[in-house]
Amino acid sequence: LSLGVHGRAAWQQWWAGVPDLQWRIIGAEEFDERRKLTHLMMPGVMPALRIMAAPEWLAQGLQWLMSLGVFALSARAFARPLPRATKVLLLGSGGLLISPYGFNYDMTLLIAGLMLWWASRPTHTLYEIILMGIAYLLPLLVYIFNVTDAPMAPIILGLVFCHAVREAYRCNTPSITGSV
């Protein structure tokens, strides 16, 4: 269809220019390592630390510690029978904190969790409105945060995750394991 509308020359022009430009943007050596497009799309702990010029060993180590902490808190929270909205919010925020190579387009589960959680509550505190509103916009805001050397995405994800964990621990249903 596009051949009929735009002709063959448009496709030739696209093929001659776009792939080369994409390759230069994503992997160009003239860009600072912290400014690569792929790093600007990542909301995780390790990319945030790399953007702030932390040594790679430190970024990987803190990412590893974050992953262990999220895994332990999630396992303990999931030992309780939880509402579906809390489960999805835990998985959406925790999964992005655990993954060192998550991207902004991987935030769909987070958005689904936010929407389910929001709809499952009759009222919300001002803190929840602000936090969940910023988290909802996070797939777009991650670029702004990372370009300005203020990678706030892991902090916001951490706050959402901690809020979900707190709700899970406050759940009035008894623990499957007998004690929580």
What does the model show?
By secondary structure, the chain is mainly alpha-helical. It is 69% helix and 0% strand. It is built from 9 helices and no strands. α5 runs parallel beside α9.
Would you kindly provide a brief summary of this structure?
By secondary structure, the chain is mainly α.
Determine the fraction of residues in helical runs and give it as a percent range: 55-70%
Taking pLDDT < 50 over at least 5 consecutive residues as the criterion, the unreliable ranges are: 174-180
Rg of Cα set: 20 Å
Q: How would a crystallographer describe the biggest sheet? A: none
With helices defined by DSSP (H or I, 4 residues minimum), what is the helix count?
9
Beta-strand fraction estimate: under 5%
Order of helices and strands: HHHHHHHHH
Cα distance, first to last residue?
61 Å
Envelope shape: globular
SS-derived structural category? mainly alpha
Count of β-strands: 0
Which whole number gives the mean pLDDT? 82
